[in-house]
Amino acid sequence: MPPHPSRMLRRLGGIGLLILASLPANAETVARYGISMADIPLTTGQPDRGAGAYQFTGHTLYDPLVAWEANVADRPGKLVPGLATEWKPDAKDATKWLFTLRHGVKFHDGSAFNADAVIWNLDKVLNDKSPQFDAKQSAQVRPRIPSIASYRKISDDTVEITVKEVDTLFPYQLPWFLISSPAQFEALGRDWNKFANQPSGTGPFKLDKLVPRERADLVRNPDYWDKTRLAKTDRIVLIPIPDAVTRTNALLNGQVDLIESPAPDTLPQLKSAGFLVVSNVTPHVWPYHFSLLPGSPWTDIRVRKAANLAIDRDAVVALMNGLAKPAKGQLDPTSPWFGKPTFDIKYDLETAKKLMKEAGYSKEKPLKTRVIIAQGGTGQMLSLPMNEFVQQSLAEIGIQVDFEVVELETLYLHWRNGAKADMNLGKGITAINLGYVTSDPFYALTRFVDSRYVAPNGVNWGNYADAEVDDLLAKTRVTFDTRLQDQYLAKVHQKMVDEALMLWVVHDVNPHGLSPKVKDFIQAQSWFQDLTTIGMR
Amino acid sequence: MLVYLLKRLLYALPIALSVTLVCFLLVHIAPGDPLNAVVPADAPAEVVNALKAAYGFDKPLPVQYVRWLGRALTGDLGTSVATGRPVADEVLSAVRNTILLAVIAAIIGFALGALLGGVAGYRHRGIVDRLATALSVVGVSVPHYWLGMVLTIIFSTRLNWLPAMGAGPGGSKEWLWDGEHIRYLVLPVATLMVIPLGIVTRTIRALVADTLSKDFVQALRAKGLSDRAVFLHVVKNVAPTALAVMGLQLGYLMGGSILVETVFAWPGSGFLLNTAIFQRDLPLLQGTILILCLIFVLLNLMVDVLQPLIDPRMRRS
């Protein structure tokens, strides 16, 4: 006799309950992330390894006073409150900025965040007489917060920072400055090396495990003060895999769930195997930065414009298997500081040849010059193939480029020293190819065109000096009206493009490869990414 | 024997000292700034100079060398500029991971090489000889990083049988001798063992064939010795040279292959060296090269000690 339906249902229900009971009460969700760095960046507060490292051991473990909105993909982010709820210049003296601190925030070790912690952290990187001064952290962040002159505690929840001159863009410097726990530093015997293994910040993740060069396990901080930014995944394992092919193989093989920068030639394989490749507008540009010193061929605007018109950027994008975006200037047209340049950067060989003819050059009578490039490295995209493409394109209009190929670290030396330095001028180098981060006004524009930043005071490599640009930048620094700020910056960018100050080729799109197991991933239009947005199935 | 050992040890000391000097100079001659690893690319000169002073890179090279050597003699190899971690810890941890690969690759490569080379030498100009010779030529000629990539494509990404990279699911610090972890060894070991396999096969094949053609082997056979007894005599004659070649090969493997360890993201000494080179991390680079050179010197010393034990003629000389 068949069992009674209700008895059968009861049995099935019992089996279902048994299965449910056998599952772990809270199965941990884990995202294994193959990152392109050779090591885990510093975990003490200020990460090393450039802007791209802040997403891993910076804004995960720590918070800044002023944060960058990195959990939106459809528009550029903006400054948002971090550990400071409000910031404003002093009504009487605009060089003094007052920061109101957030109440009730605790470090991972349970100690309280307050004004003393902010002052302690400023001393950590700016005061080499303080016991907590850390030369490594200082070296990372000092160049990024150049405006700070002094600082003091006003009350437990207010800090005053004085800048060297009125600078309304100063808050843009603060997402780089992260706050570590003074109590944890004391508890670990004032030893930053021990702190690196047991860091304590206020961030949305805590460090659970660190194996140098192999992995760092970040676990969700359930007590994070910003409940809208609680991590979607319980654990994120960062695995350094510097080689792009190895990284892609690890994704295909299921050893990791998402990776940075898959090898471009593996994209068809990834896509056909059901993996997702996501990318977004990224504040980065791959240019030739021209020397404008007397004697440089690039002092002639016709040559600079011709070079910009000689590059078929769509072909460069194709060379990158789609992982790039044609450049229309230093910034992407979606940027509020793009402006309305009259010089349209596009592929127009005929006009380019015409301009070169006017300048006295042709394929038969070429201009010969030397450009320094890197053989590869972070931010350089496919350096050699792309440079060879540019070389061939320029040859078409009568610019014969000879490359000085060096390692990226050596290229930085040439960059820091400026076009005038003997290592450049003495070797006949008239342009440098280096991928630039363009995340904020200073990084995108000021440092390259402000005459105060001519090398060695900064990285105005080409010695550009223009009174109008200097004036616009000075006005930007003193106005607190963000609409006006944007207008001034747009004019600066407009002028850069109209004067073709660089040969802009493409923007990076910071591609990521995701396995089907990754449910949520928001790729911000920034080098700062928010790992709390990663969700797993 | 004791005198011989002491002599060899005495010879090793100036070699080790020369190694420290050469590696120090090479590292400093290379272009680039040792502080690129720790400062952002656009750091102003004042920050770079302050840090140079903090790390002692502003001192003249001879002063830097003497200071470094003095510390190295006490076992302190300094701290990595990039990470702040002690160089000795970094290097020892990486060398341990490389030894894991190197020893297994050496055991398999040497055993197979000895077997193939021995058989080929005995069957001189036969089919086995030709096959073994072809295999050894391939082993020596194929770039092993290329082989690593091909093996990964076949066994990791296509068949999904083996992991593509790494030193175990939890990293090398949680290494266990179980199937789950041993799977991580298969591809890097298979890639690494190819070169020693080829070289040992060729060496032993040539040595065996040469020894078999010697008059004393004819004499042994004429005396009526069994094949087994003749084989033992051949082994005794071949062993010292084969041992020297194996010692060198083991030294190369211990040095870690930068390319193979990078292809498999294996956290060994080659991977560490690669990182140190690209970051211009001078203390780490100097420390790693020094330890690897000392391992090489030590292995050669061991071979020098073992050879006379096998071949009494060397003791007499």
From TrEMBL, chain B:
GO cellular-component term (any): plasma membrane
Its membrane topology: Multi-pass membrane protein
Subcellular location: Cell membrane
Listed Gene3D superfamilies: MetI-like (1.10.3720.10)
Major place of residence: membrane
Transmembrane segments: 9-30, 99-122, 134-155, 182-200, 242-264, 284-306
Alphabetized UniProt keyword annotations: Cell membrane, Membrane, Transmembrane, Transmembrane helix, Transport
Domain called ABC transmembrane type-1: residue spans: 95-307
InterPro entries noted in UniProt: BPD_transp_1_N (IPR045621), MetI-like (IPR000515), MetI-like_sf (IPR035906)
Signal peptide coordinates: none
Family stated for the protein in its record: Belongs to the binding-protein-dependent transport system permease family.
Protein name per its UniProtKB record: ABC transporter permease
